[in-house]
Specification:
The complex is a heterodimer. Chain A is an alpha/beta fold. Chain A has helices at 9-19, 34-45, 59-71, 82-87, 89-97, 122-125, 140-154, 184-191, 214-246, 272-285, 303-310, 330-339, 363-378, and strands spanning 3-8, 24-27, 52-55, 76-80, 103-108, 133-136, 163-168, 176-181, 207-208, 254-257, 264-268, 290-295, 297-299, 315-320, 348-353, 386-388. By secondary structure, chain B is of the alpha/beta class. Chain B has an 8-stranded mixed β-sheet with strand order 2-1-3-4-6-5-7-8, with helices on both faces. Chain B is globular. The chains are: A alpha/beta, B alpha/beta. At the A-B interface, strand 3, helix 3, helix 5 and strand 9 of A face strand 1, strand 2, helix 4 and helix 6 of B. Strand 9 of chain A pairs parallel with strand 2 of chain B, so a sheet runs across the interface.
Chain lengths: 392, 306
């Protein structure tokens, strides 16, 4: 059976890669991702993990080498943060458009200038148009589970897309929490050997990425959109299977807390949802009927699942830890578009952008924003559509 | 037009003919393009058992459009700066999987090597992954329309050095790779297929990182008649401008075709090479002298390391 250990979020990532028995790790150090690479190097050098580590000279090469290893039939893994993720952005697209399964952890961190190592979601959300399945964890146990599940989802023939797993730097990355590690044999049976649509290993001539005409190109990319839709089902199946085998089921693409009798909903993603849940538990005692919808996967965007929960909502408040400058928080934009599939009469919706550059948002902050939102609507007034919540 | 090469008078065994089974007819190369010529030599050594990793360059187009492919070997098209990095990943995955009979070859132009790919090349060389990196050097960004690269020679016209010509000398990538301490570095030329073949054969037997700097005259970009690709390549050797050598065991081993030109008196005047090429049209005496000085210095460097 499994065993309970104390792990930082970053070590939870490294152990998940170990349990997935990755063949190749290619990585470059960047704060706050570094301890993932260090741990993997230790596991590989000590012989606990039979893998090859490529200590590349840049993040661009980290994902390029991960891609190379993956197309040649290896289960490949990398991790990065912030500027590193931006530096490899060209390959973020390359991997997904080549439809090659791979897993990457993103230990999120603000973008410079100014230099800042604190967490927000700017780096991670910058990748949302790239064709990767994008999961985001709330605590270290979920970091482990999600990273391990990412391999299963990525290598599912209905998907064959790379998966990135987000976790906030420091808040999860460097914070120690109890994490239950599963039985390796059960993981092996469940995950199985590496699966991918094609392997370029020289055994038969195969060309990848030749110049293609517009119609052919578009059709290839339409397949990515289809695979994204398939992934919704696969993510839920994997969550179910994992729950049965290892005792932890999260709810698929979203996790709902206190949703059953809720009239108002708070939507959020990542570790700060823990503070949001605390705030709502407190507000519930005061009679505020609020539920939390935690987005576990923002690509594919789970608008169907959210709609199921919010059909009769009086108000939805969406917390974004990144912003598309000149517009709004990306989760908010996506959710409005998603709900419009079902109704022309959207509930009252409000977007809060906060926690940018690592500004700490406590459960008191959440409580303040939530009561303000609910009371404004209860008074028959309309809360602002967009607020950048800032404090010092 | 040119005096017979002392090397060419020696009897040569023909290269294996299986090259024609791998490099198929009907590619998208320009007339006189050196790329398929080089591939034929490479395929004579490795057959289908090679994976070519090709970044953005002429070769991305030369292999033809999807769903066709003019090479009966594995080809991976990759982002401009990444040939060496992707090849690193493939090489390590093959090692992990126990596949030892397939050659990973990064095949990149001078822009993808000397400029945008320099960091990933340096990284892969330092890590000594088992691969052959071939820089086919047509001395400018030909695929985008003849823009200057750091490998463009001094005095050459390009579309981004349109009036004055390039004012800096060519970046010597082979020299840079030697300083990485990799097990094998060689220069080669498409005009000397036997020499190139022999170098590939040697590289094939060595484990670790091998670098071959392949001189590849481009009729379109260098402005010469497509029938002169080989002649221009040969003149580069005969004028001493391009020196064929191998570097292993800590020293330079001068290759046969270049041996006579160690003696400056045997070298043809540089103008013989320049005058065939429109890119050097109108080059001044002063600039030719500067090129001569550069050539002499380069020879001195080669001799010092023999």
């Amino acid at each position: 059976m499994g065993k309970l250990v104390a792990l930082t979020g970053n070590y939870a990532v490294a152990y998940a890669a170990k349990y997935a028995k990755v063949d190749v790790v290619a990585a470059y150090p960047i704060t706050p991702q570094t301890s993932i690479v260090e741990k993997l190097a230790e596991l590989i050098e000590s012989g606990e993990l039979d893998a090859i580590m490529i200590r590349v000279e840049s993040e661009h090469s980290a994902l390029a080498a991960t891609f190379g290893a993956a197309i040649a039939g290896a289960r490949a893994f990398t991790a990065t943060s912030s500027q590193g993720l931006l530096y490899m952005h060209e390959f973020v697209h390359w991997v997904s458009r080549a439809r090659i399964p791979a897993v990457m952890a993103i230990v999120t961190r603000a973008l410079a200038p100014p230099w800042n190592i604190w967490p927000d979601h700017s780096d991670y959300m910058d990748q949302r148009d790239a064709g990767w399945i994008m999961g985001f964890a709330m605590d270290n146990q979920e970091v482990f589970d999600l990273t391990l599940q990412a391999f299963k989802i990525s290598e599912d023939p209905r998907v064959y897309l790379p998966v990135m797993v987000g976790l906030e730097g420091f808040i999860l990355g460097h914070t120690t929490m109890p994490v239950e590690l599963p039985d390796q044999e059960i993981v092996d049976q469940w995950l199985g050997p590496r699966r991918q649509e094609y392997v370029i290993d020289g055994r038969e001539p195969l060309a990848l990425g030749n110049l293609a005409w517009p119609e052919d190109t578009e059709e290839m990319f339409m397949e990515i959109q289809k695979a994204m839709n398939n992934a919704k089902k696969v993510i839920k199946e994997v969550d179910e299977e994992y729950g049965k085998l290892f005792g932890r089921k999260y709810g698929g693409l979203i996790q709902c807390i206190n949703c059953e009798d809720a009239k108002y909903f708070a939507v959020s993603m990542g570790a700060w949802t823990g503070d949001l849940i605390e705030a709502i538990n407190k507000l519930r005692e005061d009679g505020y009927p609020i539920g939390v919808i935690r987005i576990r996967f923002c690509r594919p965007f789970p608008y169907e699942d959210i709609w199921e929960k919010v059909q009769n909502a009086k108000g939805i408040i969406v917390f974004d830890r990144s912003i598309s400058y000149g517009a709004w928080g990306p989760l908010f934009s996506d959710l409005i578009t998603g709900l419009y599939h079902y109704t022309n009469k959207l509930p009252t919706m409000s977007n809060i952008v906060a926690g940018i550059g690592g500004v700490n948002i406590t459960y008191n902050d959440f409580a303040r924003m939530l009561t303000n939102f609910v009371e404004t609507i209860e008074k028959g007034e309309k809360p602002p559509v967009f607020t950048w919540y800032h404090k010092r | 037009m040119t005096a017979p090469n002392p090397q060419s008078s020696k009897p040569r065994s023909p290269l294996p003919f299986n090259m024609r089974e791998v490099v198929l007819p009907g590619d998208s190369a320009c007339p006189g393009c050196p790329i398929p010529m080089a591939w034929k030599v490479i395929s004579a050594v490795f057959g289908e058992k090679m994976i070519l990793v090709i970044p953005a360059c002429c070769s991305s187009v030369v292999v033809g459009a999807y769903p066709g492919n003019s090479l009966k070997a594995s080809v991976v098209h990759v982002a401009f700066a990444s040939a060496a990095a992707v090849a690193s990943g493939i090489s390590e995955a093959l090692r992990k999987r126990g596949i030892t009979d397939v050659q990973v070859i990064a095949w990149a132009g001078d822009g993808g090597t000397a400029d945008i790919g320099m960091a990933s090349l340096s990284g892969a060389a330092e890590r000594n992954h088992d691969m052959i990196y071939i820089m086919y050097d047509n001395e400018a960004y030909m695929n985008t329309g003849i823009q200057r690269s750091s490998s463009t020679p001094y005095g050459a016209w390009t579309t981004t050095t349109p009036i004055i010509g390039k004012t800096e000398h060519k970046k010597d990538v082979a020299k840079i790779m030697i300083s990485h301490g990799v097990p094998y570095v060689a220069t080669a030329s498409i005009a000397y297929p036997h020499d190139f073949y022999a170098k590939l054969q040697r590289a094939k037997k060595i484990r670790g990182f091998k670098f071959i700097h392949l001189h590849a005259p481009c009729p379109v970009g260098w402005r010469f008649d497509p029938k002169y690709t080989v002649r221009v390549g040969k003149l580069a050797i005969e004028t001493g401008l391009w020196i064929l050598y191998e570097y292993y065991d800590g020293k330079i081993h001068l290759s046969g075709p270049s041996r006579p030109y160690m003696d400056p008196k045997k070298r043809k005047p540089i103008i013989e090479y320049l005058k065939l090429q429109g890119r050097f049209k109108g080059i001044t005496e002063e600039k030719i002298k500067e090129i001569e000085t550069y050539v002499n210095q380069h020879w001195e460097w080669v001799k010092r390391h023999m």
